[in-house]
Specification:
The chain is built from twelve helices and eleven strands. By secondary structure, the chain is α/β, with parallel strands linked by helices. Among the domains are: about 300 residues, TIM Barrel (Alpha-Beta Barrel), CATH 3.20.20; about 35 residues, no CATH class. The protein is elongated.
């Protein structure tokens, strides 16, 4: 919103001195007031980022860039080209109203032109005519409609920066062509807007720093129609450095003192870089000044060449601004440990009361006989051992073949008959018995007639068992090819000693 302006060619040194003495101004020390982080004042901070919805959206982005710094001021301008725009018939006002209503501690700052064709370089003669027309009430209806519009949008407490930089040469609403009618025109606008029901507006009178086309105090319309005395201050002449900007006539010191004399709060609706490039020292000093004097609010103009965030050509100033605005966590102050005084507890001796000895009566314990409970005899069950029958293997009865004794005449020596005991032989399961090769097969002897001799007395008759006789010599083995087969009998060692070796002989008719 800034444009180059004409400056007075020279300033009398005596005038400067007199001005400083009259206002009682004192120079601020360069390092006075550390511009860092959270401040003692409740100054609301903002930035002009764009006039419309983009400006609203960028507020949150700027806050993040500043490490979460709360941006409490939203700042925009009404176009000054035609009266309907000055009446607030622009859609972007709804976006700003919505942002303002989101939090109670936010502030909406709106620059309002006092004339249409506000930036068309209207000559002084025409400006004077327009000022007189305004002072006579010709434009009251436009400002009444603006007030109604703001109340309707829910922002009746808007800060109105009316006819800003009126001491300069840029805008059609400038004061110099007719200061008296200009003040009358301002008063008429304020009274018209305050007459709208529901309004709670505050009006900010904000000249340029310095004399410019006219000393701004000559345009001051009166305490009853001004709530805030602001100042737009950029890094440009008059003044070679920040100290000059403080001490110059109508400079920063004069502004603070004038507001104090009139009991008004101060503000800095516009400030930033301009003529001297990336001047980090100016940003540092301006932030120190703001902290020291605690204005109601301040908004840096953040576009090139003025800005520090959206304008990338000022990196040094940007670094200083960001460091100063980024919140610093409050230091953790340890809670002082107050020692609890130790009050000694008096030792009160406890009286020793003798405990009387009460004899314990001897109660005889009755002898309760223990009942003798007989232990029941649990019989051990006799598990009978099962008798496993020994299988009786039937002994096969081998028939003893009746071998006829051939009647062979024998000599007179009688042949003793050897009694053949008939034991019950244990015969295994019969199987075909092959003739033993060791036993010669009896060969029938040729029948030799033997003279008959009388049978010795005592010979058993046929069919009777012979009487036992003493053991006799073993009969000779039958000759080869005999038809007789003898099987030796084993009666055990003891019996064999008694009866001797015995055998059973069979005569078999072998087929030859």
């Amino acid at each position: 919103m800034r444009r180059p302006r004409r400056r007075l060619a020279s300033t009398c040194v005596g005038t400067v001195t007199a001005g400083l003495l009259a206002t009682g101004a004192a120079l601020a020390a360069p390092g006075e007031g550390a511009a860092r982080g959270a401040r003692a004042s409740d100054t609301a901070m903002g930035a002009y980022l764009d006039y419309g919805p983009n400006g609203v959206a960028r507020i949150a982005q700027l806050s993040r860039w500043l490490g979460g710094k709360e941006i409490r001021v939203g700042h925009t301008y009404l176009p000054g080209d035609v009266w309907p725009a000055i009446e607030g018939r622009v859609s972007f006002l709804e976006d700003w109203a919505k942002w303002r209503r989101a939090k109670d501690d936010r502030m909406f700052v709106l620059n309002v032109p006092m004339q249409a064709r506000n930036e068309e370089r209207v000559p002084d003669r025409e400006v004077a005519r327009l000022i007189r027309a305004g002072a006579q009430g010709k434009y009251d209806v436009h400002f009444e409609r603006l007030a109604e519009r703001l109340v309707e949008l829910g922002v009746p407490d808007t800060v109105i920066v009316l006819g800003w930089e009126m001491n300069g040469i840029t805008y059609t609403h400038r004061c110099a062509p007719d200061p008296e009618n200009w003040k009358a025109y301002w008063r008429r606008i304020v009274r018209t807007m305050r007459s709208v029901p529901g309004q709670d507006f505050r009006f900010d009178f904000a000249p340029n720093r310095g004399t410019d086309a006219i000393g701004w105090t000559k345009c001051y319309p009166g305490d009853d129609v001004v709530d805030i005395i602001g100042m737009d201050s950029y890094d440009q002449e008059p003044g070679q450095d920040f100290d000059d900007q403080i001490t110059q006539p109508y400079g920063l010191r004069h502004h603070v003192d004038f507001a104090a004399d009139h009991g008004k709060e101060i503000s800095y609706p516009e400030w930033g870089l301009f003529r001297r490039g990336d001047n980090a020292e100016y940003v540092r000093r301006m932030l120190q000044w703001i902290e020291q004097h605690e204005p109601l609010y301040h908004t840096i103009t953040d576009y090139c060449p003025h800005g520090v965030w959206q304008c990338k050509q000022n990196p040094a100033a940007s670094k200083v601004f960001r460091a100063a605005m980024t919140p610093v966590p409050d230091p953790v102050v340890p809670t002082p440990v107050v020692p609890t005084p130790v009050v000694p507890t008096p030792v009160v001796p406890t009286p020793v009361v003798p405990t009387p000895v009460v004899p314990t009566p001897q109660v005889p314990t009755p002898q309760v006989p223990t009942p003798q409970v007989p232990t029941p005899a649990v019989p051990t069950p006799q598990v009978p051992t099962p008798a496993v029958p020994t299988p009786v293997v039937p002994t096969p009865v081998v028939p003893t073949p009746v071998v006829p004794t051939p009647q062979v005449p024998t000599p007179q020596v009688p042949t003793p008959e050897v009694p053949v005991p008939v034991p019950t032989p244990v015969v295994p399961t019969p199987s075909p018995v092959a003739p033993s090769p060791a036993v010669p097969v009896p060969v029938p002897s040729p029948e030799v007639p033997v003279p008959a001799s009388p049978a010795p007395s005592g010979s058993p008759s046929p069919g009777q068992s012979p009487a036992p006789t003493p053991p006799a010599p073993r009969p000779p083995a039958p000759p080869l090819n005999s038809r007789q087969w003898c099987v030796p009998l084993n009666f055990g060692e003891w019996l064999s000693k008694m009866v001797g070796t015995q055998s059973v002989c069979f005569k078999v008719d072998w087929p030859f």
